[in-house]
Amino acid sequence: xxxxxxxxxxxxxxxxxxxxxxxxxxxxxxxxxxxxxxxxxxxxxxxxxxxxxxxxxxxxxxxxxxxxxxxxxxxxxxxxxxxxxxxxxxxxxxxxxxxxxxxxxxxxxxxxxxxxxxxxxxxxxxxxxxxxxxxxxxxxxxxxxxxxxxxxxxxxxxxxxxxxxxxxxxxxxxxxxxxxxxxxxxxxxxxxxxxxxxxxxxxxxxxxxxxxxxxxxxxxxxxxxxxxxxxxxxxxxxxxxxxxxxxxxxxxxxxxxxxxxxxxxxxxxxxxxxxxxxxxxxxxxxxxxxxxxxxxxxxxxxxxxxxxxxxxxxxxxxxxxxxxxxxxxxxxxxxxxxxxxxxxxxxxxxxxxxxx
Length: 356
Known about the structure:
six-stranded antiparallel beta sheet; five-stranded mixed beta sheet; globular; alpha+beta; Sulfate adenylyltransferase; EIF2D; 2 domains
């Protein structure tokens, strides 16, 4: 959404009553646990290491110095105007950055507040965290949506990752660092498997490296993501511990119904099978994949924008925008090795201009 630099108007301070109201809305929308007594733990990891209270959670979500401003930008291939509100604040160890934004008019308009990566880097577990390989994360940084086959780590996924839920995505290279924020297009939590699936899983709305990440009132450059964050990895560890507990609770039975000790059970395979190297596709197969990706992108534009001129396709289109928006997201790439095969230079056209 913020591939183009937004126009942000003059910032104004939030009244204390408005700040509390917005913080309470966030707590409600994202189902953030509030301790009933001062000693209880909370799902939120605030900047202040003291025991969380309602006040400290509010301050972690919307700092006392929070400002707001109206913004405008454009989104989608047809460059439709988007209007909304940004909420700018400062955490204890940084400068002023956009922490939340709300879309009031245009595609995706609703009353919900969306967190930026700066907010997620200071508040762990306020949204579900999904994972994807680093080469897929590179596509997300170019504005692509996360396709279902791009989901890493086997199910079960976070039960909060239902259709319409706001989620964050991290790279497998840095599993505890959210880099991408989006909205689930499907019920990810209900997926039983990922391989062989198709379609969009998460629609991207903001990511590290976009123009919202790069903006600051003082015109300072965007802050790179940290290498590690406490809190987010604990969520993944709890998920893995739950799976391990379920596996350990399974009992093996023989065909007569008698329990069998796990140690006595014969292994299904004497040794793990050697991974099969993926066969490199032929030039014709790569050409076919590019043509099918192009045709599917046209079909999707027509389906998503039935009454818009050119079905939302802005012409002329640059080669880089053509590849990023109409080809790359729909190529059959599920592994890093496949990503090396399906490149324009390996087609018979060799470059985008000839392909067009």
